[in-house]
Amino acid sequence: MTPLFHNAPAPLQLDADVLVIGGGLAGTWAAVAAAREGAKVVLAEKGWCGTSGVTATAGPGHWWVPPQQRQSAIAKRVDSAARLGDPRWMARILDTTWNSLPQLDRLYHFPTDDQGRKQYRALRGPEYMRAMRQLAMEHGVILLDQSPALELLRSESGELAGARGWQRQLKREWQVKAPATVLATGGCGFLSRLLGSHTNTGDGYLMGVEAGAELSGMEFSAYYCIAPAGSTMTRSMVYTFGRYFDAVGRELDIPQGPDFNNALARHLLQGPVFCRLDRIPADIRARLPYVQPNLMLPFDRLGIDPYRDRFPVTLHGEGTIRGVGGLRVTDDHCQTTVPGLFTAGDAASREAVTGAISGGGAVNSSWALSSGQWAGAGAAQYAKRNHTVIRNVARYTENPFSAADADYRETIQAVRNELHPYDKNLFRTGPQLQRSLQVLDNHHDRLHIRLSESDPTTLLRWRETEALLASARWCYASALARKESRGIHQREDAPGQHERFDVHLRSGGLDTPWVRHDPVRQPEGLPA
């Protein structure tokens, strides 16, 4: 296969049973699970495995429910899923989470309660991901840090055959041949200044669709998260205790619950909004430095006491990170519509476990832990069944990589302009969605007109831009097709929820996005 760059050192070439792309929470659990099945595993991470991604910056909770309480927990979740959740999948992640976290006892110091019982529900992100990196290394996983993937590869017979990318620090191409690949690249935050999400640019969506995979639930991408103005610190739990004020100090009626973001956004469209956290109970204040150790940093730097002082707040769009959509899974092992291609975490659609609402922190963390292990084990088993010597590999896309001369910068700004504003993305209307899609379609055409040879840094940015733009178009094409309001997808011009949209919206397409309505399979019922 022709190298990407003629003047670069010789490429790193590896053979594996399973390639995992993405080294966050889902990716590391996938790599460990595949290795436990006896597979030779390579993990390629855009940043540094163990420090990059949204988990590494957070205090992630988990959907941690004792067996005797699960039926009621699932029933409550089903009721809020807007007819798109599946209780069987919910039961699966509860069981997997319950059995998995204690496996980290040796590598992670779990706190104990007053009776000496270990508390597994909430973890500190930095220590959690450090433990996962160590666990992966102990299982013999080959880690390629600072090694973003650029594209998936196929064999001469047309089957999935691995991927290739670029090693930033070593300045060389890498190529891994493998019969099974797990895409655990995270969601897409559209560069919205969401903490830990800057590398989550939709790369896995683009690579998957190029290989023939489908997406699902991309319309559920209008989740926003509160943060101090000018800060990326989107740790939202404490804001449930907040009081909110306008610029002249009048307290605002902003209810907590599912309508909080919308209510806050409507006030932000009228002017600045200020918050004070004086209602946080003393016991929670005492625990915050442990559960969310970086929460107070923006306040400390600005000399603000958030328990006493009012401070301005904003909302950052989370796209598909704490949204719902992603690559469609077709079986219990999180395989996509492409044989041998698996997906996990925020790269995968979470409709089965969240329905049309956000999984927030707890459900999404449990989904990452669980889907990672299901995908990793499934990929290893697939590789055993389909293990052949992969000789020559080829691209899925026909045109060679090139970069439009500096056009990607304008495209990035266009994506931000269309995906960030509340009055375009949060409060959606059909005409506005069509206008935004027209803008994004024009940038798709421009991005592929003037092609020229490029250096690795520009090529990486160009591919990220292509992924951002494609993800935005899939989100808005799906939002336009769902002519109702359901969960975190709200249409100002279609305020009700309708039975005719009790469907999953599948999507894909590179030059022209398409959307298909698939009926919701009736769930098998609550577990006993």
Question: If you had to describe this structure to a student in words, what would you say it looks like?
Answer:
- This protein is α/β, with parallel strands linked by helices and 528 residues long.
- Helices cover 34% and strands 15% of the residues.
- The protein contains 14 helices and 18 strands.
- The strands form four sheets. Strands 1-7-6-5-16 form a five-stranded mixed sheet. It has a five-stranded parallel sheet with strand order 4-3-2-8-15, with helices on one face.
- The protein is globular, with a radius of gyration of 22 Å.
- 50% of the residues are buried.
What is the number of E strands? 18
Question: Quaternary state, please?
Answer: single chain
In spatial order, strands of the major sheet run 1-7-6-5-16
Largest sheet: 5 strands, mixed
- Average of the residue pLDDT scores: 92
What is the tally of helical segments?
14
Judging from the principal axes of the Cα atoms, what is the shape?
A: globular
Beta-strand content? 15-25%
Radius of gyration: 22 Å
Low-confidence stretches: none
Residues in helix, %: 25-40%
The chain-level structural class is alpha/beta
Q: Distance N terminus to C terminus?
A: 54 Å
